[in-house]
Design brief:
Elements lengths: L18 E5 L8 H11 L6 E5 L7 H11 L8 E5 L10 E6 L2 E6 L5 H6 L3 E6 L11 H15 L7 E4 L11 E7 L5 E6 L8 E4 L2 E3 L13 E5 L4 E6 L4 H5 L8 E3 L1
Parallel strand pairs: 1-2, 1-3, 3-5
Antiparallel strand pairs: 4-5, 4-6, 6-7, 8-9, 9-13, 10-11, 10-14, 12-13
């Protein structure tokens, strides 16, 4: 368990703590640098800050939850995730810290962290009860979540900053999601289905087509659509040499279905 109650840093022997950012803020907008400025002021010099994604689907906590659950697996125990897809900022939704399998997650209690929690072997949750002296009503990512993540990484989190809870208020569950959750700049379509749960003989029904499996792009004829297991273990829909999203008219939230 994370030693929040003893105010020691989140740490795994031999692994240096890092802060990992996952947001819908946009890499080219004005928000990410402000968050990093807060982190850099409050963490020990040299603490790594990694940009996992700032193009998470806008306002879509459910898609973000499944994407974060897939991506976090590549980071070591001891990592601190600052995860913000927060259309309810300024409302009554809680601000939370989740500890799941040796990693910490800071963000809103709107379901964004719930798939990670549901799939974890061990998980604990805390409500963030601390508030800064000044806080924007609309930018908790900078004013509330970033200082909390920095305190965890630096080992300065006081006992009275958190209040343990019985679990998350909004829960999407551990099951796969038969929807498009992200589209990359190639036009490849990521789904919330985990490929490890599927037979390679199965077809995916999406965008009005039934798509066969291919192991890699080179195994599919140029211009043909297929599904494959992508590098983070999700079912991804692609067209060899073209944008699947454009040619198949697919968007985040569109349904995908496994068929025989």
């Amino acid at each position: 368990m994370l030693p929040y109650n003893t105010c020691r840093p989140l740490d795994t022997p031999g692994i240096r703590t890092m802060v990992v950012l996952f947001t819908d803020f946009g890499a080219d907008d004005i928000y990410v640098a402000q968050v990093k400025a807060v982190l850099l002021q409050q963490m020990p010099q040299g603490t790594p800050i990694l940009d996992l994604l700032h193009g998470a689907p806008n306002f879509d906590a459910r898609a973000g939850a499944h994407l974060l659950a897939a991506l976090q697996a590549w980071f070591p125990a001891g990592s601190v995730f600052l995860a913000v897809v927060d259309p309810g900022v300024g409302s009554a939704r809680d601000a939370i810290v989740l500890e799941a399998d040796g990693k910490a997650y800071v963000g809103p209690d709107n379901g964004l962290l719930s798939v990670v929690a549901a799939r974890a072997g061990k998980a604990r949750t805390w409500r963030i009860v601390w508030r800064p002296e000044t806080q924007s009503a609309s930018f908790h990512g900078r004013d509330l979540f970033a200082p909390t993540a920095a305190s965890i990484a630096a080992g300065h989190l006081a006992k009275d900053q958190l209040e343990e809870t019985a679990g998350l208020s909004v829960r999407f569950g551990a099951n796969d999601l038969g929807e498009v959750i992200y589209i990359d700049h190639y036009g490849n379509v990521l789904t919330g289905l985990r490929a490890g749960n599927m037979s390679r003989s199965a077809k995916i029904e999406a965008g009005g087509r039934r798509l066969p499996f291919a192991r890699v792009f080179a195994e599919a004829p140029p211009g043909s659509a297929f599904w494959y297991e992508n590098s983070v273990g999700l079912v991804e829909i692609a067209i060899n040499g073209a944008s699947a999203a454009e040619l198949m008219g697919m968007r985040v939230g569109d349904s995908v279905r496994i068929v025989s």
